[in-house]
Design brief:
six-stranded antiparallel beta sheet; alpha+beta; 10 helices; six-stranded mixed beta sheet
Amino acid sequence: MVKKGGLFIFLSIVLIGISFITFTSPDEVETLLEVPVSSPLVFEVPIPNQIWATNTNHTNALNLNNHFTNYMGTNTTFNVTEVENITILIDEEGFVSFYPDLNFEGIREVVFHAQAAGIVGLYNASSNFVQLEVLLDEESPKWSNPQKSRTDIFQSDFIRFYTNWTDNLALDSFLFSINQGSGWVNGSRVYFSGVSNFSKQTIQISAPGGTGVSWAFYAWDTSGNINRTSIQTFTVEITETPTEPGPGEEVIIDPEEIISEFSVTPGIIELKMKQGEEITRFLRIQNEGRESSNFKIVLNGLEEFLVLDKTEVTIPGRTSQTITLDFKVGERTFPDLYFGYIDIIGDSKTRRVPIILEINPLEIDFEVGVQVKNKDKRVLPGKEVEIEIRITNLGDYARENGTFYYAIKDVYGKTLDFSQEEFELKDEEFFIRTLKIPTDTLKGYYIVYVRGNLEKETSIATDNFEVGARFDVAGFIKLNFILILIILISLITALLIIRSRRNRERLKILNLYLKVNELKELINQKQLDKAIEYYIKIKSEYGEPVSEKILDNKEKLKEEMQRLADSFDKKNSGLKEISKEVEDNDKEKKEGEEIEEKNLEKKGSIKREIVKEKMNKEENIKDEHLMNKKENGEELKEEKENKIEEEVVKKRDGLNENKKSQNKIKNQKLKKSLNKPKKRGNETKKNSLKTDKPKTKKK
């Protein structure tokens, strides 16, 4: 019976076990297998001993979560045994900081504890014994293996400098310093840690070819001990810099085959940033052609600060596409002026967009500024650029000596002229200085760069201006000869037209004046009917017909004619001088005609006497001849008289023709004298006459 009951119990336990295994989820089984039987909170990684210098806080020295493991996933709390002379703080995230007493030097031991809630209650775990040693540190960091990223260095190259560092306790920070021929310039202080680490700094070389450059690193440990590498040197290589295109200009790849046209905006990018800052800008590529084109976007020189969202695009004809430019400056970036450019390469040409990046420290206690003072910020080659430099004390600096460096650079970083001076930092100082533009400088966009240096700080500032080419008169005339010729011909033609119109107006006014005088004479002679006819004729010629009502009232018409004559005399009194000139011309003409007539009459009488004398001689001869020939006497006499009469008629006709031709010449001379321009006073009176001309009335 007992055996049967034991067997039954055994089978029941087996069945329950099978059912438990069958109805338990795989996740639950796995969890049960992973949980240790003893405790879900375990101390797994030993904590190393801590060593640091006297009078130095050892903050965030370690994280206890890296040494204790809570498999339950519940909240874990930490604590530590208290020791003398060292205060130990543990924050909510498990980071531990040590704060020794002033001037304390010695060794202490501590144990860290962890606690977490479990299924059956609280679980605890403890660390190993950790030795805390506070030493008097008088040993500076040690350096080794200083090097640079390239051997051959040219102007505008980006170079990275390295140095390895070790310390007996802990490294704290480093600083990079460089002299590119214009004095030593210090970068910002950069923090690092550990007993072994390396310092690095990347800058763009601004010194021109042939310049000797010096550089060095400084490093501090947590005790404040400092060390510096030996001065490292190199020389910037000399190279023939190719002529760079200006902002937005095109570099022709194949000048014989230009397939597509495109434009890029902006033509130049200028940015002012601070350490740790991020800025986004955009570049727009416009395909001006009708066909779709492929474009490559290539960055040169600013890879450490700039990221392009595209390096190749296809743009349909007559459309555009935008490229995103993300600028990011690291907190350790050396404050300076950096240069680079973007090439947009099309099917047959390349457009280059220069980039000028001004990087200042995140926080500074003094500031420099610069402004170009030349008019319109334009300077000719060979002339001087006048600049105003401002240095302002923003902090609590006492009077401290520093240096400021100022230079002219093109958009690719090439230095045209520079200088350097010392200054004493006060509240605010202003300096007026000049730099010279070389005579062979190409026209375009240029930068004035100023950098101020104190012992541990640097501040920079920039301004821009344009260099304009000298005006070439001979070249301008040569290039625009046809245009200049057309303008001259147009001016001469316009002057001739104006003169011709003035002469026509003058003749028109003179004719009107003479007609009005004739009208006055008719009125004075009381020839009213003729005056009315003449008045109607004048009005009709000038497009002002007389109304029928006025024609019916002759007295009123007479008054109107007299009023017209009087008003014309008042408004055009200056025409009397012109009329006088005309009368004088007529008088001269008549006198000339009379003289000519007298001369002709005199010549005619002389000719007549000569003819008569000849006729008498001929008559005498013929009479004698006739006397000899009596049989033909009467017939010969008649024949002689007829011939003489014919000769006299011919001579008289010739004299008349000669007189007519002379009169014709005189008339032509008179017309030319009337067409000549008169004095300015006469022209003024003529214009007043033109202005006061009666308005046209339409029927």
